[in-house]
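Two proteins follow. First one:
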Amino acid sequence: MAATAAIYGVGFCSVSDILSTKKLIKRRVNGSIIGVRSICSRREVGTVVRCSSSSKAVAPLESEGDGRTCVIEEEGGGGGDVMRFKMSDFKVLDRVSIGLGGRADEVVFEAIVKDSNSPLHNIKVVLRKLVSTQAKRRGMRAIEVLKKLVRRKLMYHSYSMQVYGYISSPSSGRGSFTLVHGYHGSFSLRHWLQQSDWLPTLEITRILMRDLLIGVNYLHSHGLAHTELRLENVHISPVDRHIKVGILGNAADFYEDGPNSSTLDNNMDRRQMMIAFDMRCVGFMMAKMVLRELMDPLIFLKFKSFLMKGNDPSCLREFLLQILSRNSPSGNVGLQILDRNWGAGWNLLSLLLATKPSKRISCLDALRHPFLCGPRWRVAPSMDIIRWGLGSTAVRITEEYIYKQPQRNRLSYFIELMEMLNAHSRPKNWLELLPGKWRLLYCTGRQIGLTLRQPSARVLIGDVYLTINRASKLNTSISFTSDIGFTVMNGRDWPHDKSGITGKLEVNSVFRLTSGRRLYLKEEKTSEKLSFGQPNNQDSLAQKLSAKKWGKLVPYKEFPSSLPVAKLVSADIEVTMSLGDNLDQNDVTPSSIVHEIRVQVPPEMFDLSRLVCGTYVDSRLLVLRGVNGSALLFTRSMC
């Protein structure tokens, strides 16, 4: 019965007989970054390895001998034991917790130590019998890692699964090898997330992510990479409430030949790549913690393939909005968590999953990120975080789709601030970031709003896209294509059923991109008034900049007289329209459809020659200005 339960991993165990507090350090996670750094920076005294045995030295792990314990003692006192057990030292239980989930080459048992002379007497442990050669190699590696990490016992006991020792028997062939390690509850983190009563909240996500990052940073600070960070390998101990990052059987050293090797550059590259791999795994774990839909293998496959194709992770929100269910009356909880604090969660997720390994965030920087610090620990945001927050808030306002005057004013403020903080003002940067498909979110120009007018054609406008392509890297010419999807309703009134004849209007033009400046003309210095969207937009923004709140964020003491922009010079335009079916109504003509489209769509999207400059661009957002000063806000589309 025990063997069957061990192989298939069925049944559950009570957590009342978890490891006693004598072997664990009880410590609350306060999440303080200062406390974490002080712990991590403390240097311990060196270690001396002494092996206690009978008259003979301790044999290798695969051999039989009288030696019982290999003690790693610290010169300051105390130590950690790598003990050699016998199978008779344990009372094997007839059930195995599902969260222990062994591999195909492992057989997992739960047992209680019954040797009264053992310091683990009456403590529940896990016996992991390693069958294959590769599995035995993992077990021996776990003991090697123990000897490296146990020098700092506080961190080791808090974030590792505590390898106690092994059972080795040469009875058959090269001998069997069973690893003995701590028991930390019935469920892995994956099983906790799959519980029906598990409710992801912002605070729970912060606690789990902070503890996970502290544990991973503990490994990285000791020259080790985990290489196997998955929800299945991580447990939450009910005793000390810490995340246990596994038995570390596949942990890899940063330096193959030691940190003082002559191949220092290669070692640094290896270290950077291994840290980046671990951080990417942490990003996947964070995504599954927050977005429960990603626990579905099919949805997670789409999520992972999006990143594997080289798409920028900063566009994850636009991509996930298309595949995640938003039919709930209260909305998607995960999306709301990531949208909090000016979209800080999306920023952290994009940094963890960055396409280039060199761009991925480290553990310490992630612990200082605003998403994980929250209101208790205020951190000074970087300029990148400020730009991200302005853009994310502008996008969220546009999604409310009720554009009253306060909302329109806020959008104008945010767009102006984004333009002032634009980090990519050179034409070279624009030529690299512009190509792609952009979806129109908002225009600061004329808004139709609710109206009682009776149009000649009932046209429902769908998504409006701007596709930008660069023909060659040798010149600065780029092609713009405006795609306006629409549906022509049947009948004179607006029906509840919005089905009808679908169509698409395309406008093509070629632009030449050069450097330029956008001048802000003050009204008292010119006889003519130049409008930039709202009549008093500049005066209102100047008041904002003088306020204490924005003065800390924007590097301008007063409203600038000009800003660098990407100047757009248009050639001829070409307009084509296609309909999915013939028009049945006599009073609806193609010309009336085009007229209605021009009424509802910003004029710059119909007549591309009215676009005169680009004022802001990054990997996910784009702002273009028209000849009348109105701003068009786009987001990069992933469809």
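Second one, unrelated to the first:
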Amino acid sequence: MPADSIQPDAQQKQEYEQYVKSVTPTHNLWTQMGKAFLTGGIICCIGQGILNYTGNVLGMDPQTSGSWCSLLLVFLSVVLTAFHIYPKIAKWGGAGALVPITGFANSVTAPAVEYQKEGQVFGIGCKIFTIAGPVILYGIFSSWGLGLILWVLQMFGIRVG
């Protein structure tokens, strides 16, 4: 009997649809947006606190304060990822935890932690940029392309910015 002649009957289709419906997770858009807003807001408040502390208490200039803020947020994200806490935050907060700089640090750290048992070269070295690599690649390519466009426009005497 050819494989294409076997057709599921109506009852099998209905049972399959019920099964798919039972295992498919349901999400409330407004709840997800609220969680993302709250998570991203907390991360930003922590960053603002670091910025205020380094600027007002330690007396750093705004550029140095911003550098320390970024550095400390990345460090905090790496530590939380190493202790398997950041993935739980990201699962709960969604894009609110993945969009800021902390999410990028997590995307580099997570593969390094996961594949460290495979060794320095074939584990960490090969896998560390599996998530962040495309972001870096397209970021560099986009900046190169936009720089080329700006250069061509300036050759024709068009001033931008």
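SUMMARY FIELD: The two ends are 71 Å apart (CA to CA). Residues 31-130 form one domain.
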